[in-house]
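User: I'm writing a tutorial on reading structure tokens. Could you give me a worked example: one chain, its sequence, then its tokens, then a sentence or two explaining what the tokens reveal?
Assistant: Sure. Here is the example chain.
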Amino acid sequence: MTASPSPDDETHDESPHRPGGTPPGGVRPDRTAHPMNRISSRPAGRPGPVPLDRRRRPGPPALVVVAHGSRDPRALRTVSALLEDVRGLRPGLPVHLGHIELNEPLLSDTLAGLDAADTADTVDTAGAEGAVLVPLLLSRGYHVRRDIPEAAAAARVRTRVAAPLGPHPLLVETLHERLVEAGWRTPATDAERRTSAVVLAAAGSRDPDSAVDTGRTARLLADRLGVPVVPAYASTAAPTVPDAVRALAARGRHRVAVASCFTAPGRFATECAQAAPWIASAPLGTHEAMARLVLHRYDQARAATADSHAA
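And here are its predicted structure tokens:
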């Protein structure tokens, strides 16, 4: 996979690239040959127990969290810690990490590793159930629409792609609590409400669906806070965070907080926070609601597949 020129881990419309590719490997061995040979080698009428092929044991599909990748080392540390939280909430579920670019392991390598593990008949394997890919992205965009599905289609394990994390009430819960941690307090008077607002700082994308999703997240957060929430962007889309702050100030709203709608620290999150005239929240990071949201998207994708098979 060729890294795009974007220096941050959150932008959604980098130059097109094609993650994935055909992983190495030959023709799979006949998985039924050796149990049948063991049966036929016993005397007639005394077949005895047949050991089960471990790859055929029932079990959940692997969860592959798909992060964008970043040159900021804090991003990988944050995502890795979030995966540990996910594992803690769902013990026994195989949880893996794959990046679209900039960091290892790349998504294509993670999927190839699942195929290799299946072939090697190891315990932590995608097996017949395959894998569910959960984008660690907060809206739709080029990566969700093209990059991740193409990597999934190129994989030799059966895959399903879940929805991105946003919009969703659990995302709004995390945004709200990060604002409270930064010093946000619900306006106590009408005068405070008239002068208060929040700028929801997101990555930005040329994909119009990304703006739709970010706008919906902003509306959900506004309902939670009781003040206007204006979507703004670090790159590509308009308005920028400084422009949104200035527009709010022109309307008499000077008690303005910036809500960081980024999964992990990085250049975009830092620059948006610096534009805050009052307080800025930390990135979403390892909040417990984020781990629950990852598992919720995983469960949704599994349920959707089951429903389609039943139809």
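What the tokens reveal: The first strand starts at residue 62 and ends at 67. Strands lie at 62-67, 95-99, 131-135, 159-161, 196-202, 229-233, 255-260, 279-280.
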